[in-house]
Specification:
The protein has 677 residues and is of the alpha/beta class. 26% of the residues lie in helices and 26% in strands. It folds into 3 domains: 281 residues, Purple Acid Phosphatase, chain A, domain 2 (4-Layer Sandwich), CATH 3.60.21; 277 residues, TIM Barrel, CATH 3.20.20.80; 72 residues, Immunoglobulin-like, CATH 2.60.40. The chain is built from 15 helices and 30 strands. Strand 10 and strand 11 form a beta hairpin. Helix 14 runs parallel beside helix 15.
């Protein structure tokens, strides 16, 4: 399910625009719904800039349901907005367009022949298919399933024939309601397809080897596998469903979560010779008012999806639960009579946005069936897991490593260093049994520290400091078979240290010892009570970490932390906040890594030096001279940097690419990259 070969074409998938009449509509009591039309206009402008070959709309084109007098005016408003698309658009109906699925628990009137007639008069047939190259695209009407309407049988017969006639073509399926949100055997709820149609549809998906399914309705991101078919539930362009704000352990966004604008967007799908990539394009709730001039769309670094970043060298720690299942409150107007259980897939979405495949998780997660199953599923699309534990695993934990050696790439063992040499025979046996890379490191606690005054430090950490290489030397000298048993050692670099300097030193030390290192770039203070919120400082640290991570094969870099720790100990900002909305450091990570992988990952480090307003890190990449600029605070003048001209400037906070003359006021306000022309 990874990708190979050349990209063939691209298409966009848009869901849940919820367009209303330009005036006179009161079908929603929520203020954010009044923004839907302007948000849709912005999406149209952006799509015209991105130039997909075609666009598919997953339904809920409009907000007023067919029984309202504003339905027809809303349809006309929708066509006025969407007809401005340069690429052809294909529609399928959502529940707002034709009525809810047939279930007495649904909040609105159900689908009917009259509603379907009204929709088809506006947008054409409610199911259809077409081909592009050697791919077949099928759009179906979810609402008629289980309805007993004549159209249900007609569509079912048509769908089976359509998929059969497509033969060996690659098949993509589009539908409003997803078959399920969390699992195929979940109970019926407002957001899935009820039985028996669900099982029937899933059987067809497996029988005809559907490659991907795209679904709307839920207004949030979820991902599942049905056999070999990848199933994507898309965000909306208009609003976030506030009931799903329960996924995030933090105060809800504006309008009780409904205007969580960073969650809004659509998908751009690139079809490769083998496989596809579905990438989220965040619109952040941006709006374009009627009659306003078109936005300026400057060139940007194309962000790489995890599937496209095979050579990605930087991993992350997943400190927070990453496959967590949450039960939502029963709280009407939907699902008033039962709890709905869903899995939070925003960790996965964030990993894909940054092109991250390597993640570090506790070994204990292999012991939880639902998490283990998720790890197995994600390994099929290119994710790589490193597990860690305290002490040499035994019993069921050891069995789990053996059973899941296709999922786990390495096992990191944390030990009291005084016991390390005695653990070598056990580590050797573990390596022979599991055939995994063995990674070793030490535990450090407050008991290892000398007391200073009356302050009591109470902590546990792991990993060597660069200055502690002598401890590894002693271990290698005293422990027989250590060199042949241990594949790597874990180091940690704190926030007050430079990854640029420390990783270079580690490379020298590892080369001398013919071994490798894993480096955790810790974005935390040494003080467990200090809250680290300096996003510029963190962005600079991440920029250095990403760059040096591509410089050496014998040093692997992991960023710690992925998502904010805003409570508990060692609180700090991460790459994403608690709603999985991006922090500045995430943009720097994304655009710098994508640039490196796009130009060529052969990085050779040069000099790191002070300049007016910040730091300059000089390096060579694919034979081109480059300079990473890291402002201290505020802005840094490019004109003050003594480098050969001309240069291309990449703003790593926005991804905007252009000549130096295009930089406003010749100043950068965050990490930037200069590349010699």
């Amino acid at each position: 399910m990874t990708v190979s070969g050349n990209p063939l074409f691209s298409f966009a998938v848009v869901a849940d625009t919820h367009i209303r009449p330009e005036e006179g509509d009161d079908s929603s009591p929520f203020p954010v719904n009044e923004m839907a039309n302007d948000r849709a206009r912005y999406v149209v402008s952006l799509l015209n800039n991105l130039k997909p070959d075609f666009i598919i709309h997953l339904g809920d084109i409009v907000h007023p349901v067919p029984v309202l007098p504003t339905y027809d005016p809303a349809c006309e408003a929708a066509k006025a907005v969407l007809d401005s698309l340069d690429a052809p658009i294909y529609y399928l109906p959502g529940n707002h367009d034709v009525g809810d699925k047939p279930n007495p628990q649904m909040p609105a009137a159900g689908v009917s022949d009259a509603n379907l007639d009204a929709y088809e008069a506006q947008f054409g047939e409610s199911w259809q298919s077409f081909d592009k190259d050697d791919c077949h695209f099928t759009l179906i009407n979810a609402q008629v399933m289980n309805s007993g309407l004549a159209r249900e049988k007609k569509q079912a017969e048509w769908l089976e024939e359509d998929l059969a006639l497509a033969g060996h073509k690659r098949k993509f399926l589009f539908i409003h309601y997803p078959p399920c949100i969390r699992s195929e055997d979940e109970a019926q709820n407002y957001d899935n397809i009820d039985e028996p149609a669900r099982a029937w549809l899933l059987e067809l998906i497996r029988e005809y080897w559907v490659e991907a399914i795209f679904c709307g309705h839920v207004h949030g991101f979820f991902y599942n596998l049905h056999g070999d078919a990848e199933s994507y539930i898309l965000p909306s362009t208009s609003f976030f469903r506030q009931d799903y704000s329960e996924l995030f352990r933090v105060e809800a966004a504006d309008q009780h979560g409904r205007n969580d604008a960073e969650k809004l967007g659509f998908f751009m799908v690139t079809v490769y010779a083998d496989g596809h990539v579905a990438r989220l394009i965040r619109t952040n709730g941006e709006r374009l008012s009627l009659g306003a001039p078109e936005p300026n769309w400057p060139p940007r670094v194309p962000a790489l999806h995890t599937k496209e970043a095979e050579k990605a060298a930087i991993g992350v720690h997943l400190r927070h639960p990453w496959a967590e299942e949450t039960e939502l409150p029963y709280n009407g107007p939907m699902d008033e009579f039962h709890r709905k259980s869903v899995r939070n897939d925003y960790t996965l979405m964030a990993l894909w946005e940054l092109g991250i495949s390597q993640v570090r998780v506790p070994l204990s997660e292999l012991m939880v069936p639902r998490i283990r199953d998720r790890m197995i599923a994600l390994s099929r699309i290119g994710h790589r897991f490193g597990a860690f534990c305290f002490g040499v695993p035994e019993g069921a934990y050891r069995d789990a490593l053996v059973t899941n050696r296709e999922v786990i790439e390495s096992i990191e063992i944390v030990v009291p260093w005084a016991d390390s040499e005695y653990a070598v025979p056990e580590l050797k046996a573990l390596k022979e049994e599991t055939r995994l890379d063995i990674v070793l490191t030490k535990i450090e606690t407050s008991a290892d520290k000398k007391a200073a005054g009356s302050r009591f430090s109470h902590f546990v950490a792991h990993g060597f400091r660069v200055s502690e290489i002598d401890q590894i030397d002693g271990f290698l000298k005293n422990a027989p078979d250590a060199k042949q048993t241990v594949d790597a050692y874990v180091f940690r670099i704190s926030l007050d240290c430079s990854p640029w300097e420390d990783v270079q030193e580690l490379h020298r030390l590892m080369s001398e010892r013919n071994t490798t290192a894993i480096v955790n770039i810790r974005l935390a203070s040494e003080n467990p009570a200090e809250y680290i919120t300096d996003d510029q400082k963190l962005a600079n640290q991440v920029a250095e970490a990403v760059l040096v991570g591509y410089a050496y094969d014998d040093v692997s870099v992991f960023i710690d932390t992925f998502m904010d720790l805003d409570r508990g100990y060692f609180p700090r900002h991460g790459l994403f906040d608690r709603r999985f909305n991006p922090r500045p450091a995430s943009f720097v990570f994304k655009y710098l890594q994508s640039t490196i992988l796009g130009v060529g990952s052969d990085v050779k480090l040069g000099e790191r030096y002070k300049a007016a307003g910040g730091l300059v890190c000089a390096f060579e990449m694919a034979g081109r001279d480059c300079w990473l600029l890291l402002p201290d605070t505020g802005a840094m003048a490019i004109s003050g940097i003594d480098v050969p001209r001309p240069v291309t400037v990449i703003d790593l906070l926005t991804g905007i690419v252009g000549p130096e003359s295009n930089v406003a006021g010749n100043e950068i306000k965050g990490p930037a990259l200069l590349i010699s022309n």
